Amino acid sequence: MAKRLDLRPVIKLRSTGGTGFTYVTRKNRRTTPDRLVLRKYDPQLRRHVDFREER
């Protein structure tokens, strides 16, 4: 039986600080259909910034 990869796709979180740093994670499409925005640490800026989902 095949896995349901379409329900939990792999997404990239790109920094809004302009450094181009990315995190890679998975999200549940059923519970969060909108674009994800998380506040995470950007090591190039050495501070926390918003990371937005890009597809």
TrEMBL record:
One GO MF annotation is: structural constituent of ribosome
A Gene Ontology biological process noted in the UniProt record is:
translation
InterPro entries, per the entry: Ribosomal_bL33, Ribosomal_bL33_CS, Ribosomal_bL33_sf, Ribosomal_zn-bd
**Which cellular component terms (GO) are annotated to the entry?**
cytosolic large ribosomal subunit
Which keywords label this protein?
Answer: Ribonucleoprotein, Ribosomal protein
Annotated SUPFAM superfamilies: Zn-binding ribosomal proteins
A Pfam family cross-referenced in the UniProt record is Ribosomal_L33
Q: Does the keyword Disulfide bond apply?
A: no
Question: Can you tell me which family this protein belongs to?
Answer: Belongs to the bacterial ribosomal protein bL33 family.
* Record-linked NCBIfam families: PRK00595.1, rpmG_bact
Q: What is this protein called?
A: Large ribosomal subunit protein bL33
Q: Which organism is it from?
A: Cellulomonas flavigena (strain ATCC 482 / DSM 20109 / BCRC 11376 / JCM 18109 / NBRC 3775 / NCIMB 8073 / NRS 134)
Q: Which gene encodes it?
A: rpmG
